[in-house]
Design goal:
The chain has 290 residues and is of the alpha+beta class. 35% of the residues lie in helices and 33% in strands. The protein has helices spanning 26-33, 39-56, 104-108, 136-146, 182-193, 197-202, 205-213, 234-241, 246-255, 275-289; strands spanning 6-12, 17-24, 63-71, 75-83, 87-94, 111-119, 125-130, 152-161, 164-174, 218-225, 227-228, 259-263, 270-274. It is elongated and about 70 Å long. Bound molecules: zinc ion (ZN).
């Protein structure tokens, strides 16, 4: 496979069904590089990454999607954010040991998945789905069924290929107004299910589509690159600092040896502010408001 992370859309000419396929290596690696995660959590992050990449590609507008898993188990949080430019980031919080073969329920405990869609222009939408399936993919498919959206199926695999972590997946969705084409949808889902991890990791997009659907007319659209990108910035840190009471900031400065160190959990970047920085931010804020 190429060394670029990719997302492709495709369409079946003889069925009112669309598809997407994503292959992620560097983006996955970048997320894993920032923390030391248990193996089972790495797998969860890989699946969340595939899910988020595929879901953001279904957006018909500029915006982003966050897929967040949370609960009272040892894995208290796992979240991946992505936008319509296929820029993704993710992080997990692990409170105690997690076995390599831990199930989703064992990791998350009593928990749920929150899907937040934030259009650049327009209202934010949030959907919540319980962990009623043994797999993340199953839970997301339940979400599509419960929220009466278009019939949608997802397929995801995570693993190691060429000594590097890889996450890849496929989405199939019935086009709006064609919900009665369920026979051909089931047929195409059955075909898609036969893909193995090795095939999904090693083959090119064209080869995978041929391997699965060589009896079909499939139209493959242009390739989009997928990248790791964190949306943190010094300005955002300043904004969140300024939401704190002034005396609390002064206290933080005193306790941390004259500087406040804000660490981004997603990308590992540090933003350091000393007393002079804080004075400048306050002065700037003052000019903005008066
Ligand atoms: Zn960051």
């Amino acid at each position: 496979m190429t060394n670029m992370d990719t997302l492709n859309r495709f369409l079946f000419d003889n069925h009112a069904i669309r598809g997407e396929i994503t292959h992620l290596e560097q983006t996955y690696q970048a997320i894993l590089d920032n923390h030391i995660y248990p193996v089972a959590v790495q797998k969860v992050l890989g699946e969340l990454l595939v899910i988020t990449s595929l879901l953001t590609a279904t957006l018909k507008f500029e915006g982003d999607i966050a897929v967040q898993l949370q609960g009272d188990g040892p894995l208290s949080l796992a979240v991946v954010n992505g936008n319509d430019q296929q820029q993704l980031r993710g992080v997990a919080r692990v409170k105690s040991d997690i076995a390599n073969n831990a199930t989703l329920k064992e990791m998350v405990g009593n928990g749920y998945i929150v899907i937040t869609i934030t259009p650049k222009n327009g209202e934010r939408y949030q959907g919540i789905v319980g962990l009623e399936s043994d797999t993340l993919i199953g839970c997301i498919e339940n979400y599509f069924m419960q929220s009466e959206q278009l019939p949608t199926r997802l397929f995801a695999k995570t693993g190691v290929y060429n000594n590097k972590p890889v996450a890849a997946g496929i989405l199939l969705q019935i086009l709006p107004g064609n919900e009665n084409t369920s026979d051909s949808f089931e047929h195409l889902c059955t075909l898609t299910q036969t893909i193995t991890s090795d095939e999904l990791f090693e083959l090119s997009t064209e080869e995978i589509l041929y391997r699965l659907y060589n009896q079909e007319q499939v139209r493959l659209f242009e390739t989009h690159n997928v990248t790791f990108k964190c949306s943190c910035s010094r300005e955002r840190c300043e904004d969140s600092l300024m939401t704190l009471p002034a005396n609390e900031i002064d206290q933080m400065l005193k306790e941390d040896g004259g500087k406040i160190d804000i660490h981004c959990d997603y990308c590992g970047k540090h933003y350091v502010f000393d007393a002079i920085d804080i004075a400048q931010i306050r002065a700037k804020q003052h000019t903005n408001y008066h």
